[in-house]
Amino acid sequence: MATADLEDRDWQRLDKWLWCARFRKARSDCAQLVGDGAVRINRLPTDKAHARVRIADVLTVAIGAEVRVVRILALTERRGPATEARTLYEEIA
Prior knowledge:
Blueprint: H1 3-6, E1 12-13, H2 14-20, H3 27-35, E2 39-41, E3 44-46, E4 52-53, E5 58-63, E6 66-72, H4 82-85, E7 89-91
Helix pairs in contact: 2-3
């Protein structure tokens, strides 16, 4: 099975997941956020938009003065409405 076929099943690109979860309006903005070093996966910093995320990973995302910590609950193949996007993660206090 090709790598592209496995994506969205076991793992998903970080920038794509952030876009589908509606952290930013454009996927390129999500990639820029990651490239700027504003995202950590399981406490490890990353600047790679193609980093793989999986269900149960914990993301720390710094957007401006706000820092959000979320646990990934689901992966998705498409960007849906905000109500659907909210089911992809849970906020961690």
